[in-house]
Design a protein that fits this description.
Length: 445
């Protein structure tokens, strides 16, 4: 009987401890050896559809024992590669995920890794509270908090705050399992702001935070504010808070002040001529007030329009210069003469107005031969015969004169005196008929 009571008491104590902690989740371990067959892949599939994956740790190492993939004491380990870490970070917030891993060189171990090891937890979705939902809880020491619609993209124009206050100056630790916001210079668009009690300079973060980013508060009260503009949305954040003592958590829109008392309605009436400053503006009036994010968005839009206009003007100017250059080159080519193959350069033509230059005139085609008629053929034949007769006559006269000169020289040689010119009009008439026929025959040959 005593043992039964002891067992029941132990069970009740465990239940109370679970209630005090505020959450409960299961942790799993999975690893993959690179020397096994198939694609090296790590499957995170132990969570239920109503749960979300939270990566606790991810390592790559070299096992001391061959064939063992689990992490063991004394193994040489290192952080996983950037590519693997990015893929694992995309799995956070899902209920099932599969990641392909690869072998990498471990500088500290001076060898290639033999396995990848991942430790993850499955957290129930109902235990995660939306930062924009009105909530006032007392006595909780730990829990999860996320941006609206996590793990999907959060909405636009969000401004919510959650305040955690510990009793007896308890220690407050914020651990961000996932944080992916729109990045901007000086975090002027989407951002998370952490402010402690009486802190003059808040801590502002945007973009992607490293996995399991921790923030330890130095005071007993800390506020987390989440702001988004209407330009671009991201995945959001998922955070776990732990307090060493009982704490009070109040969440909701930034300008919402949860209270258990009813404020009295003021009955004073102010005249229009004497306006009074009103510090408690209504929510619709504050919504119409311009914010820093809206002003930055308008400024960036004007900058984009100006840059686009300048780019278009420069492009048009470049096109005009290109067209003018091509026209100038074309005119230079027209003013250059043909290429001389001996000197391998163009001969400069005389200066002339290229605008009035005409294309070269082609020469007329050669005349076609006209067919000869019988009369023309007869005339041509007579002309040819007449020309031949004249040629024979000239040759004959030349031969006669040469023979006469030869006979004269022979006679002078015999007589030793000069021969007087004959008185006859034509010397060849004194020749015999046989000599004339002989000379003519010789000329014809």
């Amino acid at each position: 009987m005593a043992e039964v009571l002891k067992t029941m008491l132990t069970f009740l104590m465990l239940c109370m401890a679970g209630i005090a902690s505020g959450h409960s989740y299961h942790e799993y371990q999975v690893s993959r050896c690179f020397n096994s067959y198939g694609v090296p892949k790590i499957d995170l599939n132990k969570c239920e559809p109503t749960e979300m994956i939270a990566i606790v740790s991810a390592l790559q190492g070299i096992s001391r024992h061959p064939g063992v993939c689990d992490y063991g004491e004394g193994d040489c380990t290192d952080m996983v590669t950037t590519d693997t870490d990015t893929k694992l970070q995309d799995c956070v917030g899902q209920n099932s995920c599969s990641v392909i891993v690869s072998v990498s060189w471990m500088q500290w171990c001076s060898a290639y890794s033999t396995y990848n090891y991942v430790k993850y937890a499955c957290v129930t979705k109902s235990e995660t509270h939306d930062i924009c939902m009105h909530q006032i809880s007392m006595g909780k020491q730990s829990g999860f908090m996320s941006s609206p619609n996590y793990p999907n993209t959060y909405g636009a124009n969000i401004d919510c705050t959650c305040k955690i206050t510990s009793k007896n100056r308890g220690k407050i630790i914020l651990t961000f399992s996932d944080a992916s916001l729109e990045w901007s210079k000086n975090c002027k668009k989407d951002y998370m702001q952490i402010t402690e009690h009486n802190m003059t300079t808040p801590i502002i973060r945007c973009g992607n935070l490293p996995r399991n980013f921790n923030y330890t508060a130095t005071r007993s009260s800390v506020s987390l504010r989440f702001v988004s503009d209407g330009w671009k949305e991201g995945k959001g954040f998922w955070m776990n808070y732990n307090v060493s003592t009982a704490a009070k958590i109040s969440c909701g829109p930034t300008f919402f002040e949860p209270s258990t008392t009813v404020k009295p309605i003021p009955t004073e009436v102010h005249l229009v001529s004497d306006p009074q400053p009103d510090d408690n503006l209504d929510e619709p009036e504050k919504a119409h007030q311009p914010t820093a994010g809206d002003m930055d968005k308008d400024t960036s839009l004007i900058g984009i329009i100006i840059a686009s206009s300048i780019s278009a003007i420069l492009l048009v100017g470049c096109l005009i210069l290109l067209v003018r250059f091509k026209r100038k080159r074309h005119k230079q080519k027209l003013s250059m003469g043909p290429v001389d193959p001996n000197f391998q350069h163009r001969v400069r033509r005389p200066n002339r107005d290229t605008t009035l230059a005409r294309p070269p005139v082609r020469p007329p085609p050669p005349p076609q031969p006209v067919p000869l008629t019988p009369e023309l053929q007869l005339a041509a034949s007579n002309n040819t015969n007449k020309r031949n007769c004249n040629i024979r006559k000239s040759y004959r006269d030349t031969a006669i004169n040469r023979n006469r000169n030869t006979e004269r020289e022979e006679y002078e040689h015999r007589t030793g005196s000069e021969v007087q010119q004959l008185a006859v009009p034509d010397y060849h008439q004194t020749l015999s008929q046989q000599e004339v026929i002989k000379i003519t025959h010789t000329v014809d040959l």
